[in-house]
Write a structure and sequence with these properties.
The complex is a heterodimer of chains A (about 950) and B (about 250).
Chain A: E1 26-31, E2 40-46, E3 49-55, H1 68-71, H2 74-77, E4 87-89, E5 98-100, H3 103-120, E6 125-129, H4 135-145, E7 150-151, H5 159-169, E8 177-179, E9 186-190, H6 198-211, E10 214-218, H7 224-227, E11 231-233, H8 240-253, H9 259-265, E12 271-273, E13 293-295, E14 302-304, E15 318-320, E16 323-327, H10 328-336, H11 343-350, H12 354-370, E17 373-375, E18 379-380, E19 386-387, E20 390-392, E21 395-399, H13 401-404, H14 409-422, E22 432-434, H15 499-508, E23 516-520, H16 532-540, E24 552-557, E25 569-572, E26 581-583, E27 595-601, H17 614-624, H18 642-648, E28 662-664, E29 667-669, H19 679-685, E30 689-693, H20 706-715, H21 731-740, H22 750-759, E31 782-787, E32 812-814, H23 816-821, E33 829-834, E34 837-845, E35 853-857, H24 874-877, E36 915-921, E37 944-945
Parallel strand pairs in A: 6-7, 6-23, 9-10, 9-21, 10-11, 23-24, 24-25, 31-35, 32-34
Antiparallel strand pairs in A: 1-2, 2-3, 4-5, 4-25, 8-22, 12-16, 13-14, 15-16, 17-20, 18-19, 26-27, 27-30, 28-29, 31-36, 33-34, 33-36
Helix pairs in contact in A: 3-17, 4-17, 5-14, 8-11, 8-12, 8-14, 11-12, 21-22
Chain B: E1 12-17, H1 26-37, E2 45-46, E3 54-55, E4 60-66, E5 74-80, H2 89-92, E6 99-101, E7 108-110, H3 120-124, E8 131-132, E9 139-140, H4 146-149, H5 162-166, E10 172-176, H6 183-191, E11 207-209, H7 220-223, H8 234-247
The chains are: A alpha/beta (about 950), B alpha+beta (about 250).
């Protein structure tokens, strides 16, 4: 049949179509909140409603691209699970029976519970915020209240990565630093990392691929980014530290390390007291003013680490008053040249054959030293030494939860940083670059504050970086001062708190009982808790009087999540498109390696219901409770709402929540300045973000570059230049060891001495996950992991109508060995058992998997009745949580003590230490445990969705 | 039956890089969002909060596991949408002329006003790239964002399909595959781009770029020199260190 531009009915073949339809009535730019990435978005509106969301091309984080979650944000606004109004519980806790009340009633109720606590015992309020992106504000509120019990969700997420980075080199990955994507030639990705910095890493991987640079994945599971890696090391979970120390062994032995870098920019040349009889044993030699000492190669004599022109010596030792002092580097050499770390001796545990470990080390050596980069860019270091060029080792790394969520995670993260630093690949071209305002060493961060005074604010921030036993949060009897036992001897360096222990400890009254649990965006009765069934029990348990063991629970969420049913008072939040927010330099900013940036959210649409932004509600509550900083001297409210706070709060002179468009003497300026009433409008006019680029001569060597330090002071990150050297040897850890050995007046309880000495080694060390000591590897031979799919990671609300069609249920993936040995077939189910319990779940085969590992997608499983889903939804019938198999405590040892299933250094929840066994079982209709449906304050969603606003 | 136009000089299409696609589904949802609000009927969802949610998508990403004989298993993410074939069987099978191929740029579209929802085109498409919308009862398919790529309301740089604009890893490319000098044609040439299921003789316009060689193990003899020990004991190492430090700027040598 010939083509003649006519259809059989005589019409023209090609209909006239509109090739230039209007995109929208208006486009408003704000910041995404579908995960922790915080991309810039263009929100297109038609008839005042959200019609389409795309990435903002000018935005530093996503440069125009947007992930599946971000583009599905329209379905978050449109979700039937959205709460409508404040709620007061009417049925038993956990029933989901509520009545709608007014905001005045709700806030009066909250005030009635909280005011007496503040007056008499502020610690009886535990205020924990989950996926909070306003921690510098929520922590200020908690400080003003006076409770020591505040943290966000970092303790069950990736505190090991963050804290190890800060203590070692002043920053880690994600919001602290990134690979030098333009120049790196070898990128090595450790562990599951899809859950943070998602779009920037995808953009970076695309850049690497386009340049032909090489990418290697080290991960038990070959999905996601690992699927596109040029090479894959399917490591056994929990052994990453051992592999890294073996790489260090090989590189050190071959002299493939950057001696000049180590001498100048790290504490490798700093002298250590090595007298076992000295109370200073293992501490760094200091002068009278407290400056650590090196030997100056120019003179052979002692010198301050930062003395003008000093050339620190990696080799020289110093003997004084009968005490030998050797440089840290000697200890590094002795420890890591040991055959303990020879590839042949770690191959068995890591599951990586020795020749493959050698291959990885050789690739690092070749790229770092034979493909070194030299930029003709002069710069001057903090000792005043001028350098004509910048030398780069183009090897970069990224890691996040995968290596972090183990009881040995802190030391593993430290080991990774040690590897980066030994080859000179931090803050040099092609390596890892910090994002301003980082780097910022542990000593420049606050220390934790915990002293409670009824009716008074706390003395300072709750969270911080301890330097030794004197900084722990203990009461006068030496017991933990915080409900989560953060900064106690059980986990001294718990920089993000231990949200996963709050309910368990509050229920046990250990270390004390609380009155009110106040939470925000924290799904503790479901996927955000270990031991989910146990947590539900703790939340509903009653004492002999019939009162709840945790008397009051206030919860704020925008959606009908599983946690809603377990609260007494619900403060319904808006969605992220309906409120003000600031992504602040005081908090967890969105900077790039080459630029400082911050951002806002603003109400691009108005809420269509009786909900309020949680942060504005805190301003109101702060006024009702007369919290200092939230009321004026005449008793009136200091901030009308969160936008008012963002604009007018002054943290220290010249510094507020936002650094862009502040008021100076000559008009608007950036960095420092007084409050500018039009600041939010300035942000809106500039795409809702502010960015200022790092000067070119300050782009690398940030901790040591005079040009960078001066620029940082101008920007207001700190008030004087703060150069420092990387802490390969972490002296604060040695101080805890010394205490455990009996030195000093602040002493740990005897039952913790051995653990502290073994785990708090000041040089990176590997030890088996602590739960392995309680779990028979023969009975539980498999490691069990979770990760969130890219279309859902770190998101709040998996009820999204579009996204749930991509990931609506989650099988447990089994490796070929298990699949074939037990004769599994498609459609089969299995009984999965850990020392803590059993679940029954659907299984599937996956070959691209470590032979001793099973895994599933996390947080796909939903409780029946939650999220406005049909109780027959696959999320509620076939979906499941591994959380049921993980206890927040290690199995009892018969010592009547409660040992947390956490890293003993930071308290990071050790999710990924789980061991299980898998047994084939008859097919089921529903995953077990099958909790009964909970009541919900919202109706189920519509039967059909044809969501369009412009037709 | 419907006729195909004479081959056009301009052949617009996608080049999808299977080496770079991480399977994140960003393209799937940006497509759903744009095409729900634009060309034709919205892409509806049946039972969206229920037991068997099923909606219309013009672009889906599938993941496959590949087991090479002597190497670790691999995962390949495979985005799939209409390939805008030169010899499009979905067009020639259409009884009403609703399914058509544009004469000027080769884009295959459905004129929803003329579509009777018979489904023959979906049956004829060997790629499963068409989906009947259950609410509108018309056939939906990738339009190559024909309402974006020429759209005068959009800045020049945004006149690409929504999936291309959003792809975080840069795995999706849009251009004129009829022009041998276009960026996409050169990419296909350089990377060995291939036709999906060429045996179907549909001559698809879209091309796929194959994954690069993975898991290549270099010979130990190549790598060993990088790890030649400078010493075997800590003491020997410190001797090496003294010599090495002497060679650094400011050293004795």
């Amino acid at each position: 049949m010939e083509w003649h531009d006519k259809r059989p009915d005589g019409m023209t073949q090609q209909p006239r179509i509109d090739l230039s339809p209007r995109i929208s009535d208006e486009m408003r730019q704000t910041t995404c909140y579908m995960c922790a990435c915080r991309c810039g978005i263009n929100v297109h509106l038609k008839n005042g409603k959200v019609a389409y969301i795309e990435g903002n091309r000018d935005h530093p984080v996503n440069k125009g691209v947007l992930c599946a979650k971000g583009a599905a944000g329209i379905m978050q606004v449109n979700a039937p699970s959205r709460l409508r109004a404040p709620l007061r519980r009417t049925g038993p806790r956990g029933s989901g029976q509520f009545e709608e009340i007014t905001w005045d009633e709700a806030l009066a109720q909250a005030t009635a519970w909280l005011a007496p606590l503040r007056a008499a015992a502020p610690e009886k309020l535990a205020f924990f915020t989950g996926r909070d992106q306003s921690q510098s504000f929520t922590s200020l509120w908690a400080q003003a209240f006076g409770t020591p019990n505040y943290a966000a969700h970092g303790g069950f997420c990736s505190v090991n990565m963050a804290a190890a980075g800060i203590y070692t080199m002043g920053g880690s990955f994600w919001e602290f630093g990134q690979p030098d994507w333009e120049l790196t030639r070898l990128f090595i990705l450790f562990g599951v990392a899809e859950d943070h910095d998602s779009n920037p890493i995808k953009i970076g991987i695309g850049q690497l691929k386009a340049r032909g640079a090489r990418m290697i994945g080290v991960n038990p599971i070959r999905t996601g980014y690992n699927a596109v890696a040029d090479d894959w090391y399917g490591i056994t979970p929990g052994t990453d530290g051992l592999l890294i120390l073996s790489l260090i062994h090989l590189l050190l032995k071959a002299g493939r390390i950057d001696l000049d870098y180590l001498a100048r920019y790290t504490n490798a040349p700093v002298l250590v007291n090595e007298d076992p009889a000295s109370p200073q044993n293992g501490l760094l030699l200091r002068d009278e003013d407290g400056h650590v000492q090196v030997i100056d190669r120019r003179t052979g004599a002692l010198a301050r680490w930062d003395g003008a022109g000093v050339e620190p010596d990696l080799a020289g030792t110093y003997r004084h008053a009968g005490v030998t002092h050797r440089p840290v580097f000697h200890q590094i050499v002795e420890r890591y040249l040991s055959d303990t770390y020879a590839p042949e001796n770690v191959a068995g545990l890591t599951g990586i054959p020795a020749p493959r470990i050698r291959q990885l080390a050789a690739e690092i050596a070749r790229t770092a030293f034979d493909e070194a980069i030299t930029l003709d860019r002069p710069w001057t270091d903090f000792r005043g030494v001028e350098h004509a060029t910048m030398t780069g080792r183009p090897v970069s790394f990224h890691a996040m939860r995968g290596i972090s969520a183990h009881a040995n995670g802190f030391q593993t993260c430290r080991a990774l940083h040690l590897l980066q630093i030994l080859i000179g690949a931090v803050e040099t071209p092609g390596g890892m670059r910090f994002k301003p305002p980082y780097p910022k060493p542990a000593t420049a961060h606050p220390k934790p504050h915990c002293k409670v005074t009824p009716g008074q604010p706390l003395g300072g921030p709750h969270l911080g970086y301890v330097q030794g036993p004197e900084d722990l949060c203990l009461d006068e009897a030496g017991n933990p001062a915080r409900i989560d036992k953060a900064f106690s001897w059980e986990n001294p360096m718990s920089a993000h708190g231990l949200m996963h222990m709050v309910i368990s400890n509050a229920h046990a009254g250990d270390p004390y009982r609380i009155d009110t649990l106040f939470m925000y965006m924290a799904n503790m009765s479901w996927n955000s808790s270990m031991n989910t069934s146990g947590t539900m029990q703790m939340l509903t348990d009653q004492d002999d009087n019939g009162d709840y063991v945790i008397p009051h629970i206030i919860y704020s969420d925008a959606y009908s999540s599983e946690m809603v049913a377990y609260a007494d008072l619900i403060l319904p939040d808006t969605t992220y498109l309906e409120r003000h927010d600031c992504i602040s330099l005081l908090d967890r900013p969105i900077c790039e390696a080459g630029a400082v940036a911050d951002a806002i959210r603003w109400p691009v649409v108005a809420p269509d219901r009786d909900v309020r932004a949680f942060q504005s509600v805190l301003c109101d509550l702060g006024h009702r409770l007369a919290l200092p900083g939230f009321v004026n001297t005449d008793g009136t409210a200091k901030y009308a709402d969160y936008a008012d706070y963002i604009t007018n709060h002054i943290r220290r002179p010249g510094i507020g929540p936002l650094a862009g468009w502040r008021m100076g003497e000559g008009g608007l300026q950036h960095g420092r300045g007084t409050a500018n009433a039009g600041q939010i409008d300035n942000y809106i006019a500039h795409g809702s973000f502010w960015i200022e680029h790092v000067p070119e001569d300050a782009a690398y060597y940030k901790p040591w570059s005079q040009a960078y330090q001066d620029w940082a002071v101008r920007m207001g990150f700190y008030d004087t230049p703060q150069p420092y050297i990387f802490q390969l040897y972490a002296e604060p850890m040695r101080r805890f060891q010394l205490a455990a050995e009996g030195e000093g007046t602040r002493q740990p309880p005897d039952h913790l001495r051995g653990q502290i000495i073994a785990t708090m080694d000041p040089l990176p060390v590997w030890y088996a996950p602590l739960s392995d000591g309680h779990t028979d590897p023969v009975s539980y031979p498999l490691h069990a992991l979770t990760q969130r799919p890219m279309a859902m990671y770190h998101s709040w609300g998996s009820q999204n109508a579009w996204l749930r069609q991509i990931h609506g249920h989650n099988p447990l993936y089994l490796p070929t060995s298990v699949w074939e040995t037990q004769g599994f077939a498609e459609g089969d189910w299995a009984l999965v058992t850990s020392p803590h319990g059993s679940i029954t779940v659907p299984v599937a085969h996956m070959a691209a998997l470590n032979a001793n590992t099973v895994w599933t997608w996390n947080a796909i499983g939903k409780r029946k009745g939650a999220w406005a889903l049909d109780p027959a939804a696959p999320e509620a019938t076939k979906g499941f949580l591994l959380n049921h198999l993980i206890h927040e405590l290690l199995p009892a040892r018969g010592d009547d003590l409660r040992w947390a299933n956490s890293d003993p250094i930071t308290g990071q929840a050790a999710w990924f230490d789980l061991r299980v066994r898998v047994e084939k079982c008859p097919a089921q209709f529903t995953s077990q445990p099958d909790h009964p449906a909970i009541g919900a304050p919202v109706a189920q969603g519509p039967a059909t969705l044809a969501w369009t606003v412009g037709k | 039956m419907t006729a195909l136009p004479p081959p056009s000089a301009v052949r617009l299409g996608l080049v999808i890089d299977l080496d770079t696609c991480v399977g994140c589904q960003a393209c799937v949802i940006s497509c759903k969002g744009w095409n729900t609000e634009n060309y034709g009927a919205p892409l509806s969802d049946q039972d969206p909060y229920g037991a068997a949610p099923a909606g219309t998508f013009l672009n889906r990403v599938h993941s496959y596991e590949v087991q090479p004989p002597a190497a670790p298993a691999q995962i390949v993410h495979f985005p799939k949408s209409c390939l805008h074939c030169a010899d499009a069987p979905c067009v020639t099978v259409c009884p009403t002329g609703a399914s058509y191929k544009r004469a000027e740029d080769g884009i295959v579209l459905v004129n929803e006003d003329a579509c009777i929802g018979c489904g023959l085109c979906a049956w004829a498409c060997p790629y499963g790239a068409r989906e009947m919308d259950a609410a509108a009862q018309v056939m939906k398919k990738c339009t190559l964002c024909v309402d974006r790529i020429y759209n005068a309301h959009l800045p020049e740089e945004d006149r690409v399909p929504a999936c291309v604009r959003t792809c975080p890893s840069g795995a999706r490319h849009f251009g004129d595959l009829g022009d041998p000098d276009s960026a996409v044609s050169r990419l296909v040439e350089a990377r060995g781009g291939f036709d999906l299921m060429p045996e179907q003789a549909t001559r698809p316009t879209n091309k796929y770029l194959p994954p690069r060689l993975r898991d290549h193990v270099e010979a130990p003899s190549v790598l060993a020199p990088y790890l030649t020990p400078v010493a075997d004991t800590p003491k020997g190492f410190l001797g090496w260190l003294d010599r090495a430090l002497g060679a650094l700027p400011g050293g004795a040598e």
